[in-house]
Amino acid sequence: MKRTRSQTKESISVSKSESLTASSSKLPFRAKKIPRLPSSSNNNKNKETLIPEDSIPPPLPTPKPLTSTGEMELALHHLRAADVTLAACIDAFPTPHFHTHRSPFFSLVKSIISQQLSNKASQSIEDRFVALCGGPHSVGPDSVLALSAQQLRGVGISGPKATYLHDLASKYRDGLLSDSSILEMDDETLYKKLTMVKGIGPWSVHMFMIFTLHRPDVLPVGDLVVRRGVERLYGLKSLPQPSQMEKLCEQWKPYRSVGSWYMYRLVEAKGILPLPPPTSLL
């Protein structure tokens, strides 16, 4: 059978290709490797995962505590100018004083122990707990973890609260929390970290931030006494809801902790201020 001219060319081409492949190992020089360019999908992936340093927001500054020199004077000056109604309350009561001699850890322990108890019962249980630990200076994560739930129940601490104390101490032991880091955290970060501890909710965190850390701009929107104080201060027709508290007390920023302190005094001292007429601030 005769081959056509095109079939002959194809046969010669295949033959040359096979010959070159078979003898490639005998070439007197190494073949150059052609680098593979990254695909566009890889490029896009890299662009998505790499974040420019200048686009990362800096950490929020830790606010000056109210116990800092001159900070309370600044707070009172601001509140008087921002809220005329609150100014009358400020003039009727002594200047707030914030002080504590306990470490952040000890304060959080005390907060857990005192939940849903009277001051007298709470203090009695706390005294027995401190003695069990070996004294006030011995209250720490290690000493708490060394106590069994049965030992804690023996001094009046309930089973759930024993679990809460162990969870708090474990987070200290694991490095998720520490006294030094708590002092350095901004309010938002601190709130998120502390509410991760079993048994510590928003109200406990707000009280801790105001009365232990002396943070200036904390509004405990869920605190019944503070809500009653706001209701009385502005002559509201009903108890304000937490969302309404944010709106009503917006003008107190950045010293809402001080405004909240005066709400406690206002509720405790009934009749010291004349009731304002009902208002429709909400």
Automatic annotation (TrEMBL):
GO terms for biological process: base-excision repair, AP site formation; DNA alkylation repair. The keyword Zinc does not apply. GO terms for molecular function: alkylated DNA binding; DNA-3-methyladenine glycosylase activity; DNA-7-methylguanine glycosylase activity. Residues 1-68 are annotated as: Disordered. Residues 55-64 have a biased composition (Pro residues). Gene3D superfamilies: 1.10.1670.40, Hypothetical protein, domain 2. Pfam families: HhH-GPD (PF00730). Keywords: DNA damage, DNA repair. Residues 113-268 form the HhH-GPD domain. This is Alkylbase DNA glycosidase-like protein mag2. The gene is LOC107487951. One of its GO terms (cellular component) is protein-DNA complex. Belongs to the alkylbase DNA glycosidase AlkA family. It comes from Arachis duranensis (Wild peanut). Residues 13-25 have a biased composition (Low complexity).
